[in-house]
Amino acid sequence: MESTLALTEALIRCPSITPKDLGCQDIIIQRLTQMGFRIERFEIEGVSNLWARIGDKAPLLVLAGHTDVVPVGNEAQWHYPPFAAMQADGLLYGRGAADMKGGLAAMITACERFLAKNTLKESSLAFLITSDEEGPSIHGTRAVLEILKKRNEIPTWCLVGEPSSETILGDVIKVGRRGSLTGFLTIRGKQGHVAYPHLARNPVHFAVQALNELLNIQWQKADPLFPETNLQIVNIQAGTGATNVIPSHLDVNFNIRFSPPLNSKIIQSQIEALLHQQAFEFDLRWHCVGNTFYTEIDSPLIKALLNAVESEQKLKPRCCTKGGTSDGRFFAEYGCHVAELGLINATIHQVNEHVQISDLLTLSRIYESVLEQLLT
């Protein structure tokens, strides 16, 4: 079998900008088939999804990840072509090297070594891989889990190979995430000439006070295991482009990253109550990207990860819940214990994304240790 490095290189050379897979899952399926995994492919609205399982009994451990990557940005700023998978000074460069084709390769080679030594008689192992993690995340992991739920095939544990590490491989394990809620607000006014403001209603002026009040909401204090709840205004648009016209409406989008004990319904109610006190009419639409989740430290999954990292890296990982959303949130909705451990995330989504080549094999050994602890 190819090494973790060679497999990572092969995956990087597939220019799988979300939601395209462009051959990544074909490469993965070839490896998994040789190990004896049963393969199912789900093509949903242009998204490629892969479910592969070996074993029939519980507990079921799922290794989860994605083959899609974000766009490369300004290619002229890259030291090497972003899909060439070039090596230099102990580093492997390429879009997706850290996020998260290196993690996928490490998971696959860990399984190869594990299954060469073990037969699953009282447990099961599976992969759930999608090409829709960096995009809307509607037709990927979420959709496949709905299918698995109908088959009563929900996993016991889920290990997501997202790049969780910060400065040293294994220094951070994500054991939960804040929730994410986006509001799409339209403030309605009345268009008019700027010289006759008494004949118009300026939605921009209305917005100044209302948005200031939104930013000054004192949210309920977060659980000590989570960062504080935070609201950020991310987009404002108004006007016709003319400098002598009061606009008819203003559109503003804002996102709240929220922590327990808050939930999306509490936040929506609080913000809607504030807006109803304002002197303007409005329309408000919500989109909850994901609710909070947390896996207890005494979960067998977390214990196995802590043991594996401490044994391999001689360091004690920090368990945390900060950062953005991942597909782990979809597993958590079904009661699955979820954790994220992967490569260093310092260059993800940037030009010149890269990983330490030595970290690829180390991560594979960490994953192999987790398999040994949970499935034997």
Short description:
31% of the residues lie in helices and 26% in strands. It is built from nine helices and 19 strands.
Describe the structure.
The chain has 376 residues and is an alpha+beta fold. The chain has 2 domains: 4-177 and 292-375, Aminopeptidase (3-Layer(aba) Sandwich); 179-290, Alpha-Beta Plaits (2-Layer Sandwich). Helices cover 31% and strands 26% of the residues. The strands form 6 sheets. A 6-stranded mixed sheet has the order 1-2-6-3-7-18, sandwiched between helices. It has a 4-stranded antiparallel sheet with strand order 12-14-10-15. A hairpin with a 2-residue loop joins β1 and β2. The chain is elongated, with a radius of gyration of 23 Å. 44% of the residues are buried.
Q: Determine the number of helices (DSSP H or I, runs of at least 4 residues).
A: 9
Roughly how much helix do the residues carry, as a percent range? 25-40%
Poorly predicted regions are none
Which CATH top level class of the largest domain fits?
Alpha Beta
- Structural class category: alpha+beta
What do the pLDDT scores average to? 97
- Helix-strand string: HHEEEEEHEHEEEEEHEEEHEEHEHEEH
Task: Kindly report the CATH topology of the largest domain.
Answer: Aminopeptidase
Subunit structure: Homodimer.
Cofactor: Zn(2+); Co(2+)
Keywords: Amino-acid biosynthesis, Cobalt, Diaminopimelate biosynthesis, Hydrolase, Lysine biosynthesis, Metal-binding, Zinc
Enzyme class: hydrolase
